[in-house]
Amino acid sequence: MPGLGTSFGRGGATTSLQDLSHADAILIMGSSMAENHPVGFQWVIEARERGAKIIHVDPRFNRTSAMSDIWVPLRAGSDIVFLGALINYVLQNEKDFREYVAHYTNASILLRDDFKDTEDLDGFFSGWDPEKQQYETESWAYRGARLKKDIYKRSKGGGHAQDRGGEKIQANEFEQDKTLKDPRCVYQVLKRHFSRYTPEMVERLCGVSQSDFYKVAETFCSASGPEKTAAICYAVGWTQHSKGVQLIRAAAILQLLLGNIGRPGGGILALRGHASIQGSTDIPTLYDILPGYLPMPYFEEDSDSITEYIQEHKTDAGWWANFDRYIVSLLKSYYGHAATAANEFGFNWLPRLTGDHSHIGYWIEMAKGNVEGLFVMGQNPAVGAPNSRMERKAMAKLKWLVVREMVETETATFWLDSPEVSRGELRPEDIETEVFLFPAAGHVEKEGCFTNTQRLNQFHEKAIDPPGDARSETWFMYHLGRRLKEKSKANPNPDNAGLDALTWDYTLAGEIREPNVEEVLQEINGRSVVDGKLVSGYKELKNDGSTSCGCWIYSGIFPSAGENLARKREPRDFLGHGWGFAWPADRRILYNRASARPDGAPWSERKKLVWWDMEKKKWTGTDVPDFTATKAPDYVPPKAAQGDDALGGDRPFIMQPEGMGRLFVPSGLRDGPLPAHYEPLESPVHNELYPRLESDPAAKRLDSPQNPYANSPDERFPYVLSTYRLTEHHTAGGMSRYLSHLAELQPEMFCEISPQLAAELGIRNRSFVTIATPRGIIEARALVTSRIKPLKLDGKTVHQVTLPYHWGYKGLVKGSSANDLIALSQEPNVRIMETKALLCNVLPGPMEHGPKALEELAQVMTGHKERRQE
Amino acid sequence: MLKELLWKWPLVRQIATGSDGTGPEAMSEQTRNLRPRFQGAQVARSVCPYCAVGCGQLVHHKNGRLISIEGDPASPISRGHLCPKGSDSYELITHPNRLKKVRYRRPHSTRWEDLDLETAMDMVADRVWETRARTFVANKDGKTLMQTTAIAHLGGATLDNEENYLIKKLFTGGLGMVCVSNQARI
Amino acid sequence: MSVTAFLTDSTLCIGCKACEVACKEWNQVSNDGLDWRGFSYDNTAALGHSTWRHVAFVENTAHPGQGGNAPEAFTWGMLSDVCKHCENAGCLEACPTGALVRTEFGGVYLQPDVCNGCAYCVVACPFGVVERNPAEGRAFKCTFCYDRQKDGLKPACATACPTESIKFGDIEDLREEAVRRMNHLHSAGFRDVHLYDPQHTSVGGVHAFFITRGDPRAYNLPPNPEVPTSYLRKGWISAGIAAGLMLAGTLFAFYGSNHE
User: Fold this and answer.
1) What is the complex's ipTM, to 2 decimals?
2) Which of A116, A517, C21, C237 has the highest CB neighbour count under 10 A?
């Protein structure tokens, strides 16, 4: 999460669900929390019952809106205009929490003279290279900060790593104007940057009345300050945009200005949609990072030697000064005794990245026939991924496919019963792909940890054996690895040095020979190499190969034999200490040093959390301090100090080299140091804020004949399309459409449209409609509801059409997949696709089936499709 | 004997006890013996597998069979509650459409076949080995690459941390696979 | 052991249907058909033999800027309906086999092993709760989780409910809680909240009361539920009068014939 990562230092939610109940206002935007996190929403209800105001900003009036005090519908894709206007409101009316802002954020830091803002360059920041279609970010650095070597070179690497494991600049070197008056200080630059984000613009671009805007602004801001705090909750309604990271950045700026980070009832809660989606970035199954957010080495950029790699990512000041300890300990964990100082701890056995190896990136290669084999485990891209039509067709180019699932998903049977087969685009007889579908174990049939939305690791115990040949992924990976290592032993080859060195000896138990999961968790926790003793936390890790640790941020989860903290079920307090283990170091509210004033006393009695105990000379409170416990508030680092010692006693953001929350991000982002509004890649209107630019210049459209776009605007596709989830289903449906008690609750694909649009098109409630985008054509039942409202944008009526995306061609209830309509696209930082704001057309009546569906789509594309009235 | 038999007749009990026939006297043996079906079962502490709220679950099981799954009241996050999906976890584990055997589709085939698990594992290991051997690039321009882009992986956000750890360790650390991805983005 | 009840509060209901699923999972009730109704988000339609908790959705015109639980607007109401477990229960009075019984917790329990499927209870319920399963013949309804209550556990629906919109407990405590809640809502500016607790009709009170926004009828809660046997007295009088008239008519007929 570079949005949060670059702003605060860590890519995780800053707070806990329970803590929402302490908020004085909660802004839910980019999320339908009541629908998708119903049990988490109890804390919002609790806050509301205590008197907090709940604000929901969302294109649809959904079950979250129904529980909120204020609902504001806005045009999908215009969120930065709205948030920018909130920031502008705070700055213009001096509603910012000045003491917090001055001490804990980079507001006072001066920028270089060659930095140019969007105000100066018609929507661009300085450094835009029109040839490479990317930014050269040198001018965004703090004035006086030294650049790390070759700042330009590091533009190819993956987004997840960009904000972690170091910086492109020595951000601890800077000049300051503590009065915030200098026109080159971040505060003044910010003020100027957001000055055009006015309530009038909100009205014109978001379709939100000025009075509604003021209502939100006043409600949210008046719930912030020393005595009060306000929280923000978001989910993929913010992230799945071509500028998703910048949307979260805008929220981060707002919360920093209002002094809401690190304090009880404040923060930004990223609501995540899968049981361990946080865990799968912490211990990633992602291409661009290694466990603990260490970047994957990139060919020719940082990878010539481990020394170069460490130099590139280690910082002088802040916590990342420990970078070398974490990478060396990880390599020791992977390669064991074979990893020595002499062979750079096996650094050269790690593969180097050479491009975009993300899902979308390699899928495009797959479509070209460049990928031979694919493993899919607990994901269903055939209906769950953008441009599903292309996803399915690409799989037909594979030589072999391994799917591990609890049910027969669409991904496993794309060759048999996909729409492409019925439409004549694919013939099973022509598809070479060999498919292995392995039955997978469910959560009660294996043990292990999930990391929830608030960074909390919870171990789930095994209750029963999996049925038949169903097995855990632990089992599958172990026994696959064992076979491969045996093959390597039989055919020695230097290419296999890493595989040969890989430590792979876990105790096996039972008839099925299941590996011991707690041993894997202990490996993740880390050990002292000499005596095999478990380390008590990441502070014990060394850079000389004397410790091993599979994921440094999880270190401390298993501090001694028999003490699996993720398994603990004895909550001692409201924040749940004693129940599971939150990374890092069991801290439940991050950056909680900021809950105290610079001098260490709580901002107020009502909002106290962590404070400096003058007598005991240490930080204390109801949470584990996210700070060196004995570092006094008035500590001033000596000149030569390194790492955490280089941060003063009033610097709560300990991961950052400057120790401050970043209103302005000097390095780590690819599309700008500040958020700016750009239209979605497909938009019904022009970008009135920056008329020279329509969409985010750094975002990748990935245009191709298989992935075509509509124009912005486009008469053929006049409506805004947005997708969403329902409470009754889960993602692409593999865990819900097959279950009778969930299938019956939402048994059919539908499309929510306003009564006004229904009247315009002659659509009756319950009738069939056909929905088309340049990528695909699908069918749904019309649910005509006044919960969807047409918006007036500058006098023009804009209709929004919203689709749940849970259906597919298998399961107890079948239906079209909304993802057939979505474009492959990539946000510049994390390569996420834009699903929340696209363009579509709606035709009354059912879709043609078989090959005729594609003929109809072609007619829509040429603008020759007449609307069939009922 | 006869008395016992007669006593089972609600009307007799009703007359004998002078009640109106709608209270305990009208209860059948089955009703009188009614108890929650997880009585005497073992309980595993678990976590809901759906969204990322991480609700606590109590998994009741007896003799290797699942009895029921419900919320864990001790959880400081969920306080014993579950949403409709979490409440349907028992069905998730026990429904008849769950896969229990490996299914295999040959190239160009129009149907599934069953496959023995160990055979399937051997075949997958062979495929990985063969593809990797053919596509692995150890060096480029004299510099370390140690990479194959011909084998890819997708998935992880629904898996356990330990599983993701082993996936990354084997696929990337051992085999040099760089195309590793999952649902997680921002 | 105390007499228990449900208090279901629509001002806390998020319409997630966890109650429906938790009920079906615990009681092993089958699904209710996989038909999409196009009526808001309600696809289980009503209480019946395979739906013992049912979440009703009431959509009103949405006003931007006013959420459903802001006092000034009422837009999308949700409420989980359930068997009322009446004090004077029509089903229980109508049952000829003794299949329906009053439990020690005050609930009305339908014994599946005694039920013979005559369906007298179905027509006798003033709330339309009980329904016969046409596939296997017997009638079914909410058990008040009698099995769980015997072990001191909450019913499955109340256990699951994420926002504690469904409260379960001692009936007197809950009645007090309902009054407190109503006062709280009134003081917070909710002028359209109603406590639905029909104590003064012939059902004589219920073990499931509700707080609704707007008219309870919108959630399928009848304003004056009457137990059918309350019409018996009137029925007997009418029958007596009718019999008398018929007798008189007959006599009159003979009387007339004598005159000929």
Assistant:
1) 0.97
2) C21
